[in-house]
Amino acid sequence: MFKTSLKSPVLLGTLVVATGLLSGCGDDTKPQQAPFVDINQNPFPSTYKALPSQKIAFTHVNLLDGLGGQIANATLLMADGKIQQLGESLEIPDGYTVIDGKDKWLTPGIIDVHSHLGVYASPSTGSHSDGNEATNPVTAQVWSEHSVWPQDPGFGRALAGGVTVLQILPGSANLVGGRSVTVKNLPNRTVQDMKFPDAPYGLKMACGENPKRVYGKKGGPSTRMGNVAGYRQAWADAQDYQRSWDKYTEEYKAGKNPKAPKRDLRLETLAGALKGDIKVHMHCYRADDMGTMMDVMKEFGYQITSFQHAVEAYKIADKLAENKVCSAMWADWWGFKMEAYDGIRENIAMVDKAGACAIVHSDSDLGIQRLNQEAAKALGDGQRAGINISKAHAWQWLSSNPAKSLGIFDKTGSLEVGKNADLVLWSTDPFSTYAQAEKVYIDGGLAFDRDDPSRWPVSDFELGQPGEGDSK
């Protein structure tokens, strides 16, 4: 048997070298930090591509700029999808197609902040009812864009009414119904092909009767106080969730190796609203409910962007102005349930007069086709009540105020140099019941031309099916 001795000079030297190598590895090597968990905040990016833009000069038009201004006999130049110039007596450069707008009106495109097109699509069947995930009072994890059917013929009908942009919301069954999506009204193959690039997400919430009715027999909430408790707990959970991710980020930056919190899609959306990245739009009718929700807003430090429907907004218009909350309202819908009973036709004008942000919305696949007429009704009712509002001022209810509430006013909502050429050429005064949208442009591309039916968007469900004997 071969024996060795630790006293052997050769063996001692080998052990010393090996030990040195091992100790050197221990000194120079630190535990490697795991890769940082960075959540993709835009997993469903817009793939929108604008229609070919045209160089067009609109001349002799009566122009409403969407900011409260009006120019008679105006000229507007658009090219490369943007508004280039507007004013009186402009020189028209070479290469522009001239459209004589004598006796016609030019306005920013209409923006509807409350639509369910695509999530409650036509034809109205149970299979197309995809707007309410009524499985839990708080379903912030669902996104309306995953229910939108782009072939809903309602999009084309709204386009014929001058609507260039719309916000598609989940329904109002839940305390928190999920994320909304803002789209360009250019019907396409997928919702991503319609998605307004870089528009912030919205968060749909609802107060009052709807959540009570839906969940009263499902274990709650069944009262308004139960509703409020549900919101508060959801926001408290979201705060805790955000703190856990903030702690993880801080520790990672400090060189530690923390374990990332478990991802929760519901709390992730709510945390985004707390940070201000997601805009909160809240279905709310009664003044007292809106007041309570503004208190909850202050408790948890988020901002309500708009109250939707807001039938009693006139009662607290000063508070809405003070808290910078818009009201998206109907001209004259009221009385179809108790919380809608105390509506008045002067609501929109009174909110506007108080200095608050007033918006005309549809919440209807029919109303969206004639929002200009809805604004006309609200304007007329206000004027008859002695509120002096001009047509130019009232158009803000359809374009710039909605754009501000959706976080896209830097791109659209008014006729200003450098903004997207989203505009409508009307046959006459758009506050007239006889007015028709003759041409609708989105990013400078002709999206609708009333005189050219071959360009009208047509859904498969409007084409029908061949009858018996017609298929030969």
UniProtKB/TrEMBL annotation:
Protein name: Amidohydrolase
Domain Amidohydrolase-related intervals: 106-434
Residues spanning the signal sequence: none
Matching SUPFAM superfamilies: Composite domain of metallo-dependent hydrolases, Metallo-dependent hydrolases
Cofactor: Zn(2+)
Gene3D superfamilies associated with the record: Metal-dependent hydrolases
Span list, region Disordered: 449-472
GO cellular component: cytosol
Domain of life: Bacteria
UniProt-listed Pfam families: Amidohydro_1
Protein species of origin: Neptunicella marina
Single GO MF descriptor: hydrolase activity, acting on carbon-nitrogen (but not peptide) bonds, in cyclic amides
Cross-referenced InterPro entries: Amidohydro-rel (IPR006680), Metal-dep_hydrolase_composite (IPR011059), Metal_Hydrolase (IPR032466), Metallo-dep_Hydrolases_sf (IPR050378)
